[in-house]
Design goal:
Elements (H helix, E strand, L loop, with lengths): L1 H16 L6 E15 L8 E13 L4 E18 L2 E19 L4 E17 L8 E12 L4 E10 L10 E12 L1
Antiparallel strand pairs: 1-2, 1-8, 2-3, 3-4, 4-5, 5-6, 6-7, 7-8
Length: 180
C-alpha cells in the first residue's frame, strides 16, 4: 500500500508542477472492459466490466508524448464447474504509463507498462490473489475533436494473479474521454 501511495503522490506532484500550457493536457475517461484469464488449461469465459479514471498527457515533441493514467478497472473471468457458473471479479487501481507516437494528426499508437494494485475481489471460491499485477498495454487513440477522444487498448498481464494458479489477466478496453 505504501508503494501505491508513493506512486500516486509522485504522479500528482508531477502533474501539479508542470504549467497548464500546450505541454500538458489533463483528461478523464471511462469505458468497457472485455476481461478474461490467460495462461491456464482451465476453460474460462470473458466477462464484461468497466473502467474509469484520469489521464495526463505530456507533449515531448511533435510526434511523441507520455501519458500516465490512474484508472479503476474491474477484471476477471467466469467458468463452469459442476453445472455451476463461477465468477471472479477483481477491482484494480491501475497506473499505465504509455508512450504515445502520433502517426497522424488524429491517431496515435500507445504502448507501455501498467502497474496495478488490487483494491477489491468478488470471488466464488477460496484462493489467494496477489495484490500487485504488472502488465503490458498497447492500443490506438483517435482524437475525434480537439477535446474528445476514443481509445482501444489491450492489456496483457505478465504476472500471475494467484500463487496457486498459472493464470494472468487479459483485458480489452474501449474508452471514451475528454481533455481540458
Amino acid at each position: 500500500m505504501k508503494k501505491f501511495r508513493l506512486i500516486t503522490t509522485v504522479l500528482f506532484l508531477l502533474v501539479s508542477t508542470v504549467s497548464q500550457t500546450q505541454v500538458l493536457k489533463l483528461g478523464a475517461k471511462a469505458g468497457l472492459n472485455y476481461a478474461n484469464f490467460s495462461g491456464s488449461d482451465l476453460q474460462t469465459d470473458a466477462i464484461t466490466s468497466y473502467h474509469a479514471g484520469l489521464s495526463a498527457q505530456f507533449k515531448l515533441g511533435d510526434k511523441f508524448s507520455l501519458q500516465p493514467e490512474i484508472i479503476y478497472s474491474t477484471q476477471g473471468a467466469s467458468y463452469a464447474n459442476l453445472n455451476q457458473e463461477l465468477t471472479q471479479k477483481l477491482g484494480y487501481m491501475s497506473i499505465p504509463v504509455l508512450a504515445r507516437i502520433h502517426v497522424a494528426k488524429i491517431v496515435s499508437l500507445d504502448f507501455g507498462p501498467q502497474f496495478s494494485y488490487l483494491l477489491s475481489k468478488d470471488i466464488d471460491f477460496d484462493t489467494d490473489v496477489n495484490e500487485f499485477d504488472f502488465a503490458a498495454a498497447g492500443g490506438l487513440t483517435f482524437n475525434v475533436t480537439e477535446n474528445l477522444f476514443v481509445q482501444g487498448r489491450y492489456v496483457l498481464g505478465l504476472t500471475e494473479i494467484s500463487k496457486n494458479a498459472n493464470v494472468k489477466n487479459s483485458v480489452g478496453q474501449l474508452s471514451v474521454g475528454f481533455t481540458f
